[in-house]
Amino acid sequence: MGTPQGRHVAAIDQGTTSTRCIIFNGAAEIVAIERMEHRQIFPRSGWVEHDAVEIWQNTRAVLAAAVARLDIGTRELAAIGITNQRETTVVWDRSTGRPIANAVVWQDLRTQDICRELAEIGGTQRYAARVGLPLATYFAGPKLAWLLRHVEGARARAEAGELLFGTMDSWLLWNLTGGVDGGLHLTDVTNASRTMLMDLDTLAWDAEIAADMGIPLSMLPAIRSSSEVYGEIRAYSALGGVPIAGILGDQHAATFGQACLSPGDSKNTYGTGNFMLLNTGGNRIASANGLLTTVCYQLSGQAPVYALEGSIAVTGSLVQWLRDNLGLISTAAEIETVAASVPDNGGAYLVPAFSGLFAPYWRDDARGALVGLTRFVNRGHLARAVLEATAYQTRDVLEAMVADAGVPLSVLKVDGGMVGNELLMQFQADLLGIPVVRPVISETTALGAAYAAGLAVGFFTGTDEIRRNWAAGRQWEPNMLDAERDRLYAGWQKAVTRTFDWA
After folding, report:
1. pTM assigned to the model
2. What is the DSSP string of 81-137?
């Protein structure tokens, strides 16, 4: 597998709430991990920002700390892969390396007016045939358009070639490879496919869409495959010369790490939000049921692999909301104990449309609602309603996916921070009526980036090795009666309609 000069491969996992570095050995086992959280900035209702400089500093810190923890030298690190929160948008000055504003996070709603303006011609599906995405606040292109409109002098500087755009992968790669001193301005096909600016067939930027949004093409990074040597680290001497050889958006990385490498394979990640991807191979399926068409991954020199995706904005962050905003629990882990104090939701449903509703509804006018309340409902019922909201939203997406693909799913592979919650996973299996399986290695996002980087430098031999490495760790079997499953889900569907037309 690895050579004596490279016995390990590392992944930078730049997520919505934290940045991590995880180092794997040749058997794809975790040997070191470091993590740092960054601030969540909420300037006004509906706005979510990150400090891109803080994230870059944290990235350097966790990378150095993970390498130090393992006490390995540069010669023992074969390659580094990057995986990142998608759609979060950074614009920076190419000569100073300073962002012109805070990064606009994928959850942010400020681009509603721009999306509605663009939808006046052709509706929300105006560009879907080319880019696989509806006009929605979720995606990076409208966020970039907003920054160019609202940051003083930004448009003129962009048109003069002074500014660069990127999602977090591009921002980190540029800094790692030298920054103002020759840093590489690149992205991969998976991240590019989340901007609304890349044609899914040509894998190139669409000049017409960019012009519609007022975006100069000179700002955009070059698009490359998900697994190839892009360049070497030049940011600091300790890791100088180590190749950066893999880039995947976080959900694509988790799909790759879960070995969903054949058409029909699927996974669901339970994180800040939930994201279910179904590998459709070389077949680019246009969804008729509110899903996204995206690039799943592309290996160097090979044709792209496509996927259908169902994106849910608020799942794990709903638990944080219950803890931080309402104070009903003191730690995220406590929710399972509180929810288990009652046998059911007591008739209460919580629809977390804090950022509108994503798949399969795509309603930016929706806002959160807690319905079905009676004097009977207590703290335990609310905790249970919070957990159940994740499972109900997942069923919404799974049913849309089955309708689009025409093939029922027989098992659901899961990963992410919430899959340690046994109550949630059992309820998920009950609600779907199929087994839910968690792999032995649950850090599948970082693992996917490590696989992509390792494949590019020969550290891993090929996709067959990835398949062999995957192993089930825990499986939940459904044990709910069909009538009860249908009754609960009907209540959820009724609750969802109460959130529409609010904003």
Report:
1. 0.86
2. EEEE-SS-BEEEETTT--BSSPEEPTT--TTHHHHHHHTTTTGGGTTHHHHS--S-T
